[in-house]
Amino acid sequence: MNNKEFVSQLASRTGFTVKETAALMAALTAEMAAQLEEENTVNIFGFGSFEVRKKLERVVINPATKQRMLIPPKMTLSFKPSVTLKDKM
């Protein structure tokens, strides 16, 4: 299911127009992105939680050249599904 199909199906379930639903989805994702940029956790009841985690720097070895490389630290996004969502699967 792509974004257009998702928005259309959501619009038919909620009774909003496709344009209104697309605007609501854009606002939702923008707010989630803003909260995650501030490293806040976003919890959605019945769905799960999104959290920003920091990966530490590490040394890796290229198996072909045996060259050691330093991978810098970075921030990653993790998702933990709720118990309700797990039960539905």
Account of the protein in words:
The structure is a single chain. This protein is α+β, with helices and mostly antiparallel strands and about 90 residues long. The protein folds into 2 domains: about 1-40; about 40-89, HU Protein, Chain A. It has 3 helices and 5 strands. It has helices at about 5-15, 20-35, 85-89; strands spanning about 40-45, 50-55, 60, 70, 75-80. The strands form 2 sheets. Strands 1-2-5 form a 3-stranded antiparallel β-sheet. It has a two-stranded antiparallel ribbon with strand order 3-4. Helix 1 (about 5-15) packs across helix 2 (about 20-35). The mean pLDDT is about 90.
In short:
With 89 residues, the chain is an alpha+beta fold. The protein has 3 helices and 5 strands, in the order ααβββββα.
Content-based structural category: alpha+beta
Low-confidence stretches: none
Q: How many separate domains make up the residues?
A: 2
CATH homology-level superfamily of the largest domain = IHF-like DNA-binding proteins
| CATH classification class of the largest domain | Few Secondary Structures
- CATH architecture tag of the largest domain: Irregular
Strand order of the largest sheet: 1-2-5
Order of helices and strands: HHEEEEEH
Determine the CATH topology of the largest domain.
Answer: HU Protein, Chain A
Distance between the termini: 17 Å
Rg over alpha carbons: 19 Å
- Assess the beta-strand content as a share of residues: 25-35%
Count of helical segments?
A: 3
Q: What's the count of strands?
A: 5
Instruction: Label the overall shape.
Output: elongated
The average pLDDT score comes to: 91
Percent of residues in helices comes to 40-55%
